[in-house]
What does this fold into?
Amino acid sequence: MKIDREKILILTSSGGGGHLQAARAKYLELSKQKNVSIIQKDVFLDFLGKWMGSSFAGTWNFCQAHGKITSLYLFSMCIHYVDIAISPLLMVKFLYQIIKHDIDRVIDTQPQGTRVFLKAVRLVSKMKKKRIKYEKVLTDLPTKKCNHYFKPFRNLCAKDKAFLSVITTKPLLDGNESEKDFWKKAAGLSLDNIKYCDFPLRPAFQTAHKMDHLSLTFNTYSPEHTHLVCKSLSFGSAFYTRSKNKILWKFKQEKLSLITLGSFPQKSVLIAYMLEFIKQKNAFNRERKDILFVLVGPEKTAISYYHSIIKELEEHKDYPKTLTVVPLAFQNDAALAPLYHNLDFIIAKPGGLTTMELIKAVDGSIFIHDTPVQQLSRFFTSITKLEHDAMLPWERGNANYIIEHKKAQIITPELFKHVTKEFFQQPANTFLVGAK
It folds into this structure.
């Protein structure tokens, strides 16, 4: 007897890492179910074509890595117009996929094309006489600044809204505001459109926990990577085991800290935070053993970051041997999730999925990197009146959410010494972690 499979289309995009991570989390969750067939498509690369899609995604990621804040802001302001311009192509490509594969359910983890995707779902549902489900997974936290998702929702007609389910967590409310009022005002939706779920995190972040005996293996990708990472480690005194492409660590009483500034971090800011960390440690707690992990982004660009970090450590005149700096290219979930759950200190950008991981996994001190308004061009601030905030709007919303729910603090390299003093005055961890 033929078994009917639910055919699911997962949509994501390469413009930032959060959409891809959420899609992967959904894929892993659904792939455990029986009688499910899953297809995944990248709205930029698969629907717009390699040239146009790569240009959109690559330009955004380039601006992130090089701190082009004005350009990022301009892109964010133009998202709605870009969406309109590419809508005909998205409609055609999307229709082809749901008709060709006889899709029963669409799970969309990115903000583009909402209106045309819903119209296509309505059309095919009518043609095939079956109701296709359309679920929009928010990869940013639901705040009033989540306008890149909410503006398309507000522009939907009633018939389109009837097919829409928004997968998210509970919103950040003002004063006596109700959830019903929030969704109506911010997104033009009723509570019937909203489905509250756990964060769309990869399974490792759902199951990891704080451990008394923490042992982690980090991927160094190649002998050259391994050599450079170990050269950085040589300035400290922490014990580790190395192999050709990996480093194994059994942690003892060290304080564990992490700096992570997104998928394509700005090198100068990473290094500025590292130097401030060293300065603060020298000022308050040279005796305590600290390990500082610095995530430097993709494997292909990591070598440049490694050399810059090592150069700074070599030239530092008062480097404390009780601090070990560990620069790492992207790591898999098996290493990152347990590390997050055991961190004492983290500096992170307020990207959507990163913020959700912080809320779920980190019990230590959380600091959210802010973008100095001076990084916006004078011309841009004069025409937009954005004189006090250079953080992208949805990231500001994410930051506000985690400040409210986890007592996180805003940080910049200039604010570092003022807001981190309490952490550096703490003694070593009181329990042993690892250690023979």
Remarks:
- The radius of gyration is 23 Å.
